[in-house]
Specification:
mainly alpha, globular, about 600 residues, 8 strands, about 60% helix, two-stranded antiparallel sheet, single chain, 4-stranded mixed sheet
């Protein structure tokens, strides 16, 4: 796995977020200033930046992007205007993420082996190592892989605690939970997951230890441990809110408004927040006093949570199969799951669901009840009522018969998936990467169970699925981020369905430069979706002119290269190009068209 991650990372340029993440992490460590990239917690950015401390790197703290808090420009200055080669800086920053991915694989094996034996553990490990979505994001300086690791570990530790109720296992859960909060803000959902799983555990079996008082104590421990972890991660910093430039700007705007009715044109929620925080109101007076006088520990964490809330509230432009929306699509993640998950994995999980349902209905509950009830209960209405109670009893009995860990493994990805569907930020399948370790464990169990099946064709079918699964990752190497399964014809059709970090995150500039050199192309149009400087790699170009009709298309007289996220942009600037089959797909994220006349 590390070999595939490392060698593929060498071939890819910076993705959009990496420059911002890595440079901000470096400044957190070296300056103790958390002004950049507040919308993500600092922990993983700091971990990624640790190897850079051994290099003679100079952070551009005298550049206007630092004082102006322009994280994107600061990231470019940090990488491409430094004393050390940008690709070396990037590679060293990616290494810690690769190592964390190996740690996740170890725990997947450990949990599966503990539950079902070493054979199932090895199968789970193979499935993990060759999962293309995991491979895609285990090489980038982002929070997605690390969030997957610590979310998985939190559920793993919670399961261990539910088995023993020992202080040791509780402490492990509390520590992992606290770390997860500062890996990715979405980990706050673990509070809700904990409560849901407590209820499910009590429904599964009455546990004397899980009293209301005990659960409340655990919740308080979770809060307290998060506070301690936040204090450490944010360098024991405490900030008077008004000294923050964004808070100051907000209150400058607020103080310019003397009539609260001026807020009536705002969105309803924004109007309420404006009024509640306005210094002329009682609540606003208190809040304004706190903002001016009270130093808040880990203030940047609260600011980051608010930034994430605002981002989700206002939405983010997203694309799904020819449609565009600022507020997301309810079917975005169901679609990405169906087209970016290997079909062999989907078939294995579907087979597992059939096994579960067959076990539930193998006694032919309804038929047996009707046969008995028809003879002894003449009233049809009463018979239906009794049938419902009978079904409910048998279903509850079925739920109790199956070990709770199974339900934990099933319900975690289901609940997380449902929660993800409510998000208005639909910019990448990576946002549900957390579900994959759980699906991998379930699929591993299905495989080992099927291999012991008495019917030969089922055993052969499972082996075929495994080979198909492994080949899918090998064949997409090194372009893991561009993986799409066979249901839509593979990665060559991926951009017709989704863009952004699903296929085009600016990662293929190095491959594009190699293509230009190999084909001696020096005159070309190029429009790029990314945050790096193409000129750093010797790419000097003119942007692709507007191409919305056949006439404009026929006027093109040279090689045209365009990132697919730009090709399928909302404004339709390149709509005519969408009707033409590209001559070359570089990493599946940059389409190249040769319109030269000779």
């Amino acid at each position: 796995m590390f070999f595939m991650e490392f060698t593929s990372a060498l071939q890819e340029s910076q993705t959009i977020d990496e420059g911002s993440h890595l440079s901000s992490g470096y400044t957190y460590i070296t300056t103790g200033d958390f002004r950049l990239n507040p919308e993500h917690p600092p922990l993983i950015k700091e971990v990624s930046a640790l190897p850079l401390l051994f290099l003679p790197i100079e952070a551009p703290l005298d550049h206007i992007s630092w004082t102006g808090q322009n994280q994107w420009e600061f990231g470019r200055q940090f990488l491409y205007n430094n004393t050390v080669d940008a690709d070396l800086i990037l590679l060293l920053g990616r290494l810690p993420i690769m190592l964390l991915s190996l740690l996740l694989g170890m725990f997947i094996y450990k949990w599966a082996a503990r539950l079902w034996g070493q054979g199932t553990g090895l199968v789970a490990l193979v499935l993990y190592v060759f999962e293309p979505n995991i491979l895609a994001h285990s090489r980038y300086i982002t929070t997605d892989l690390a969030a997957t690791l610590f979310f998985f570990l939190a559920i793993y530790c919670l399961d261990k605690y539910f088995h023993t109720f020992s202080r040791k296992n509780l402490l492990q859960f509390i520590v992992v939970f606290a770390i997860a909060q500062f890996v990715k803000f979405s980990a706050v959902i673990l509070y809700a997951f904990f409560l849901i799983f407590v209820v499910l555990k009590l429904l599964h079996k009455k546990i004397p230890q899980l009293t209301f008082a005990h659960v409340l104590k655990i919740l308080l421990l979770m809060l307290f441990s998060s506070f301690i972890a936040g204090t450490i991660v944010y360098g024991f910093s405490a900030t008077v809110p008004i000294t923050d430039s964004d808070v100051k700007w907000y209150y400058d705007e607020q103080l310019n408004v003397t009539n609260l009715s001026d807020f009536e044109n705002e969105e309803p929620l924004i109007e309420k927040l404006r009024i509640i925080t306005h210094p002329s109101t009682k609540s606003g007076e208190i809040i304004y006093y706190v903002a001016q006088n009270i130093a808040i520990p880990s203030f940047q964490y609260l600011k980051g949570m608010f930034t994430l809330f605002s981002h989700n509230y206002w939405g983010h432009m997203s694309y799904l199969h020819g449609e565009y929306s600022n507020f997301g699509f309810w079917n975005y993640f169901p679609t990405t799951f169906l087209i970016k998950t290997p079909l062999s994995m989907i078939f294995l999980l579907a087979f597992g669901c059939l096994l579960l349902l067959s076990r539930l209905f193998k006694r032919n509950i309804a038929t047996r009840f009707n046969k008995i009830a028809t003879n002894f209960i003449p009233s049809k209405k009463f018979r239906l009522k009794m049938r419902f109670r009978f079904l409910l009893h048998r279903t509850t009995s079925f739920y109790n018969e199956i070990p709770f860990t199974y339900w934990l493994l099933i319900s975690t990805p289901v609940f997380y998936f449902i929660w993800a569907i409510t998000s208005k930020i639909n910019i990448g399948h990576r946002h549900i990467l957390i579900i994959y370790p759980f699906l991998i464990m379930l699929a591993a169990k299905v495989i080992t169970f099927s291999c012991g099946h008495k019917k030969t064709y089922i055993r052969i079918l499972v082996v075929v699925f495994m080979i198909w699964y492994v080949l899918a990752s090998i064949l997409i190497y090194p372009n893991f981020i561009s993986y799409f399964n066979e249901s839509i014809g593979g990665p060559k059709n991926g951009a017709k369905f989704v863009t952004d970090s699903n296929i085009d995150w600016g990662q293929d500039i190095i491959k594009f430069k190699k293509y230009l050199d190999d084909h001696n192309i020096d005159q070309y149009y190029f429009t790029y979706f990314g945050s790096l400087w193409p000129s750093y790699y010797g790419i000097s170009h003119q942007p692709v002119p507007r191409v919305t009709n056949q006439e404009q298309l026929e006027q093109l007289d040279r090689v045209v290269a365009i990132s697919v996220s730009a090709l399928y942009s909302e404004d339709g600037t390149y709509s005519a190009l969408q009707t033409v089959e590209p001559d070359v797909r570089i990493g599946y994220s940059i389409y190249v068209y040769d319109f030269r006349k000779n």
